[in-house]
Amino acid sequence: MDTRHLAAFTAVVDTGSFTRAAAVLHCSQPTVTSRIKALEHSLGTTLFERLPSEVRLTPAGQTLVRYARDIMSLTLDAQSAISSNGAMSGRIDVGTVESVTSYRLLPVVEYLYRRYPSISLSMRASACGETISLVRQGKLHCAFFVDLPGDRPDLEVRALCPEPLVLVGGAGHLLVGRAHVTDDEVRSATLVRAESGANYHDQFERFLGLDIAQDRPRVLELDSIDVTKRSVAVGLGIALIPAIAVVDELAAGELCRIDWVPPFEVFTQVAWRPGTRSNALLSALLDAAEQVVSEQLRELDDADAKRG
User: Fold this and answer.
1) Where are the beta strands (DSSP E) in 140-227?
2) What is the pLDDT of residue 239?
3) 140, 175, 215, 288: least buried by Cβ within 10 Å?
4) What pLDDT is recorded for position 102?
């Protein structure tokens, strides 16, 4: 398969139009059409349904998408490796969530930046489900997320570490300082969601029955860890947040732990498509993430031992 044909194919998939694909590829629409027809001829099947207002992938086209992206990605990797005389170079696109980026992956970014100066790294924060979907589609090399353990069809997944969650409130909140806070008391409080796309929030609300409640309390979806922490500190509500994100605020007394523990455990995890671990950039990123998280856990154990 000619990579120019695959580039045309993925461009049509991404833009939803032969015309827009031509603009992205800086060529004419007839050229894109010709390349798609040549690809279909070589595969002996139709890849798109040409409808009056759109183009839609056929089942064969849906099957080809992931392979096409992998082939294009490997082609770019090979070109980068050759042009850089074997030095690690190229671009890696990563999906993540804010809490993981800020409190787990920042040392990974620094490590890659200093060790591999020719690597370009892009981190895109979005909802867990969206990042997982983009990895499956081949638009992201991998995704870091916080969620319950479980199978992810068509993906390789590794749990990097447990990610304890803590329910916090401002110093003046009525639940702060009370022993054995009940589910009903948590259920009646105003909730502040720090990461609206994080699955642990959905699990939290499902456990409390808030996903089906007719008279549920107010929920503030701020979609920012820092803004959520400030909002909770001034008394706007309570928030369930990864404990690693509130260590400093709890120590300073700006936030207070509420005596309630979620009845489920979540993990910081990373997912990638099978067979892509051979990508040198991805492998370097995953190795660095595993090393950094292991060091963070050791430091936490040492700190706990000193306090004990």
Assistant:
1) 142-147, 156-162, 165-169, 191-193, 219-221
2) 95
3) 215
4) 86
Q: Following DSSP, what letter does each residue of 31-88 receive, concatenated?
A: HHHHHHHHHHHHHTS--EEE-SS-EEE-HHHHHHHHHHHHHHHHHHHHHHHHHTTT--
Amino acid identity, position 178: R
Question: Residues near 33 by Cβ (< 8 Å), separated by ≥ 6?
Answer: 18
Dihedral sign of CA atoms 131, 135, 137, 139 in order: positive
139, exposed or middle or buried, with CB in 10 Å at 0-12, 13-18, 19+?
middle
Enumerate the β-bridge partners of residue 242: 165
CB 268 within 8 A of CB 100: yes
pLDDT for the residue 250:
94
Residues 229-255, mean pLDDT to the nearest whole number: 94
* Cα separation, 48 vs 27, whole angstroms: 20
- pLDDT at residue number 165: 95
Asked if residue 72 lies in contact with residue 7, where contact means CB atoms within 8 angstroms, the answer is yes
